[in-house]
Write a structure and sequence with these properties.
It is a single chain. It is built from 20 helices and no strands. The protein is mainly alpha-helical. It is globular, with a radius of gyration of 22 Å.
Amino acid sequence: MTIEDNVEKCNNNVHEDVSMPLLLEPANLNDETSSKASLWMVYLSTIVAVCGSFEFGSCIGFSSPTQAEITEDLSLTLAQYSVFGSILTFGAMVGAITSGPIADLIGRKGAMRTATGFCVAGWLAIYFAKGALSLDIGRLATGYGMGVYSYVVPVFIAEIAPKNLRGALTAVNQLMICTGVSVSFIIGTILTWRTLALTGLIPCAILLVGLFFIPESPRWLAKIGHEKEFEVALQNLRGKDADISKEAAEIRDYLETLERLPKAKMLDLFQRRYLRSIIIGVGLMVFQQFGGINGICFYVTNIFESAGVSSSTGTIVYAIIQLPITALCTIVIDRAGRKPLILVSSTGLVVACILSGISFYLKDHNLALNLAPILAVAGILIYISSFSAGMGAVPWVIMSEIFPINIKGVAGSVATLVNWFGAWAVSYSFNFLMSWSSSGTFMLYAAVSALGILFVITVVPETKGKTLEQIQAEINA
């Protein structure tokens, strides 16, 4: 589940104060003013911040390897565990809505501390849980923290990074989310579920300590009028010998431009000139989530067991394979283009779901029983490989590019809410759909991904190599 430079996740339909990541899109900065040797604080700040991304992945990955053990230990029904698995995304929706105002009120570092506090409380509630209620409260709290992280981590990185490093450093966010998921999957095969919950506290501890040693976002400091702290933070990030005068002036000019823009409201999104960009942003989120990723990710262990495959082996392979592919995607996205990656990715999702559907059909009808597990493993591994190759990260990249800046906050919030709602709907309904028809579930996801291919071909523009102004002018013409 990826998240990019200036994606907004901070507004709801009653909140009119649009909170914008304070990015300097039109600037023409001298990238040579900051050498690699002088950027150690940028790298350290990024490492500290992406501990939140790792925690994000740990929250997502917890429910899959622990389902059988938690269900047995606490005597949970299928419905109770489905609530436990899916309530994470409900908490994330609330976290995403409130993250922008929190980050604007107490700063990016303050927002990360807030998210960490919720995650710590949530993991402890899960660890000490004696029944479904404590589990759900803990899962809801970690979900809220995850939702705040999903906004504030990429925004913080984007606001501290120099222009020439912004894309690479923000891509680390998605990579660390996948790493957190993979680590949870792997160690979850050997640890008890309560011990696995305690491991979720480790990135929280590293993040809390690390925040004492890194500066606040200079753009946020400038926005709230702390001029001296703004210059100190920017100098710290660029190196003591770097000339920050031009960048500081550009940031101040950009903030003045933001102040002159009208405050966007929810109804503004339905104006004809913005409608196509809204359709693209929301549509990509619908096809990303309703293709089944969160159902498969949350319950991959149970899928392998149902197909007659060793759950530990399948889960470990699943966890390992997504990391190099996600890393490759971050490297080629600016070379191959957005649309080709999504189309290749979606095609792979269709093939993967069909293979998994055939596998469960054969197993249910006692046909080719030796072939069914092979098809199941192949289908799931092709699925996660294909999703990591494009559909996971690229929709967030496109969303960060297509919305005009004056509606970016509200529009980004709407698209993000749709994404989290889809994540909740899929994760909650997955076990029920599998009980209805395992093969039918995967064929349904295949159909959604096939519709997604048509949507991308006919509606989504290619944004590679274009300025934000060019992209938005073409879409909203």
